[in-house]
Amino acid sequence: MTSYAACVVLATTRADVNGVVRHRLGARKASFAPMDDAVRLSGMEYGGITPIGLPADWPVLIDAAC
Amino acid sequence: MTGRERQHAALPEAQAGEQVQRDDREIEPSRDPAEYAEPEQQRAEFDEQHGDMRLAAAARCHGQPDEPSKDVGDLINRRLGAHRDDEIAGVQHEVRRGGGQRRALAQHGDDRRAGARPSLRITERAGGVGRIGRHGQLLDDQPLGLALQHGQPERQLRGAEYLGDGVGLVVGELDVLGGAVAVLVVQDQIAQAAAPRDDAQAPPVVQHDLLAYADARQHPTGDVHSHVYNTTDVIALGSLEWSAVNGDLVAAPVAAALGGWDAEVAVAPIDPTLADTQAFCDAYGVALEDSANCVVIAGRRGT
User: Fold this and answer.
1) For chain B, where are the E strands, in sequence order?
2) B 249-278 → A contacts, CB under 8 A
3) pTM for the complete prediction?
4) What is the interface pTM, i.e. ipTM, of the complex?
């Protein structure tokens, strides 16, 4: 079963996908979603996915530094 | 990084602003500090340049006692660049030990008219909110309301924006003074500076309803400007061209999620092929620090 989430991080930083994010999601494994999935499920254009308007069941994790 | 996405398509105003960066860069003082040594002298300076000043800005900054806030000048310059052709040429900065708030006074001069060098001055104040004298000088420890009594600024302000952590910029005019005014909103305090302007050269006033958030992410300061404003003509981030939210620029789910909130959101068209952050920033002149990525993560449970 795959669940999705969005992470918003500053461009100067990288999301700790396999650590912080994975723990937060309670997932066994976490990775960047394939582009096709991200675009299809979000209904947004690649390169233009914003945290606003993502599917309601997607957690949005925002780095406090943002 | 597969799936790395960018957030620029729609930024709530609170997120569009930049962090206030406090660094130690030396910025060439545009004026001899001694010129500002005495309030009377300062006032005379303002009087002398009565016709030259185009815009003034005041800021009250809460920072580390020894941490310079020269960056405020940069912020003002960059933001005012969206409104004015001329820029603040230099920043004069003064930091004293012992805490207190810093206040920046930016004098936005018109070099073409008098060769006056605009300046930004940051000094420490013990407390209180400054109001603005007739010629733009800051008068200590006066409630902000006194400054607002000069006019009906909420109907004449030209724009406002969130600059960073607790700092916002409001630009507008006070009709009685006949001058432009810029306000930096810092945390829950607002200070103002006003300056006479040359009517012939003044840009037209945009009649926006304005919102002056003490903290743009939280609540409006109801006793100052309670209106929601349109950010689209005040956001300046690289060469991105911001406009109001419209269906051509945002996906349907985004527009739906924004609902009635879109008055506070501006969008800018971007080249979707610039998926790499560095390429994006280079193309639009946006600093990496000003950018955020929205990354979509897929998590799997079980086996």
Assistant:
1) 4-6, 11-12, 53-61, 92-93, 101-109, 119-125, 131-132, 138-139, 159-164, 167-174, 179-186, 189-196, 213-215, 219-220, 243-244, 265-267, 292-300
2) 250-258, 265, 270-275, 277
3) 0.39
4) 0.90
